[in-house]
Amino acid sequence: MARYLLRRLMISIPVLIGITMVTFAMVNFAPGDPVSALINPEAAGSLGPEWVEQQREALGLNAPLPVRYLRWGQEILKGNLGYSTIDRQPVADKIAVRIGPTLKLMVAVQMISLLIALPVGVISALRQYSFLDYFISMLGFAAISIPSFFLALAGIYIFGLELGWLPTSGMRTIGAEDSFIDLLEHLILPATVLGLANAAPLIRYVRSSMLEVIRQPYVNVARAKGLSERTVIYGHAARNALIPVITVIALGLPGLFGGAVIIETIFAWPGMGQLAIAAVRSRDFPMIMALNLVVATMILLSNLLADVLYAAIDPRIKY
Amino acid sequence: MTGISEAIESGPVAQTSNLLEATERSSPSTWKRFRRHRMAVIGTAILSILTFLAVAAPVIAPHSPYRTEISQYRKGPSAEHPLGSDASGRDVLSRLLYAGRVSLSVGLVAVSIYTLIGIVLGGLAGFYGGKADSVIMRAADVVLAFPSLIIIITIVSVLGPSIWNIMWVIGLLGWPPIARIVRAQFLSLREQEFVVASRSSGASSLRMIFRHMLPNALAPVIVAATFGMANVILLEAGLSFLGLGVQPPTATWGNMLTDAQSLPVLQSMPWLWLPPGLMIALAVLSINFIGDGLRDAFDPHMQVR
Questions:
Q1: Whether this model's pTM surpasses 0.90
Q2: Can you give chain A as a three-state secondary structure string?
């Protein structure tokens, strides 16, 4: 197991290097000069192009691309992600405060989608081809087809504006004391919108996995032993059916983060997605590079986690 | 192993006749199975209507989608403007019709690009195997590990948002799933008797690929491309909604919704955000149903239904 994990980690490293090389090269082709971007435009006139050229040389910007990439990589390894071009704050600090809110949102989304997908998927499989099964699959299609931002707008309109039940933006009420209830109230709308879209494909997987399992001999054996149908389904069938679903959840995480980018922007949720959009809008390239790196790392780690969980839950799997 | 190849193998015709004949005989039943999928048929009808409206937009739109009229600032529906007008006084109905042209063609072009790349790379990997296979499939793994939305917005921020950038960026990043499908199909087809027979009778590689293997590998690719088109339309809508996709004054369903981020618009001007949102949902839902219908139609096991 440990050896397998190590091998997987070793495979992840070239992937990460590949991603950073590609983004580094892309950002390098961006128009605009980082030195001109850093100096005060009023002072720029008096400093002259020679001075800018000197600074470029001093900062190592005239070195060939691969050399600059290696230098950038060295800094990353030392924990320096660079400085934001908006306010010259260290990028690492700005990202650090955003990770918490994004994780809170992701956990809530994952909980909501599992709460929906597990029971619904199992019931759908037990009543294959029934009206209920058909109806659930229709709803699933609707959930993956309605754009999340439209659902979010509709949610804000109905529950935020018309009914006035839920807050429509931010993570906590301004001026109010921090409380868990307040956080939950702010979480409900964004997490439900994203959770619904995320639940739909999960339902499909739970259903088909369950359909496969209930035809297995051990389920018949459980029935033949005279166990109650309840025990057979939930104790024997469903537990085994959920194993492959873990992989699906982990593989869906990049997509989930993509969804969070849009949802965070609509609900003004102070997470990494909102930060990414703000960075793109103001062409803050150090920030964009760092976010690419952080998100790619998170995705690779979650894939690794899925493998570990898979092995931990299913004793038949050996490495 | 799925798709037509299996249908041919399990059919009574397969043993005696050649491939071409078998394909011809299996196609009417594929079509029949598709027709039995009610939602897929409804989806096809709705998508045809949306496509027609988009193509015919210049003829049927009541106004120019670009003509601004300050006196019509965010006016509600009227006889003159059936769906009202937007913040620049432009006719919402006309913009809605023109937006369909952009939204649908972005989906079509981007998916065509990555399907083509996926077929070529997956085909090479599956046909030649060995080094080519491992290099191509590792590359696919790397691209799949990319946080795609983040990469897309990075590229958009570098190159600037435009309809062309959106199309080719999605086109260049979307190929790995298609390549995996084609590779898996080729790997299993390579071992089948009719392919081995054509090889032993001296057929060239090209002939084997285009005549015998590719036609039998296409069914799952078509299904994946259909679902892919639904996803790309959603992606483009999301990007344009955030202002990172197709830029105004060109209308797309996504960027027409951008206005609705302001609460007054959301609360009291539903004509500005409800129609484009519904159009996206309708188009994507139809395409997803068509994809589902195709998947069932290509899968012989689904006949029982």
A1: no
A2: CHHHHHHHHHHHHHHHHHHHHHHHHHHHCCCCCHHHHHCCHHHHHHHHHHHHHHHHHHHCCCCCHHHHHHHHHHHHHCCCCCECCCCCCEHHHHHHHHHHHHHHHHHHHHHHHHHHHHHHHHHHHHCCCCHHHHHHHHHHHHHHHCCHHHHHHHHHHHHHHHCCCCCCCCCCCCCCCCCHHHHHHHHHHHHHHHHHHHHHHHHHHHHHHHHHHCCCHHHHHHHHCCCCHHHHHHHHHHHHHCHHHHHHHHHCHHHHHHHHHHHHHHCCCCCHHHHHHHHHHCCCHHHHHHHHHHHHHHHHHHHHHHHHHHHHHCCCCCC
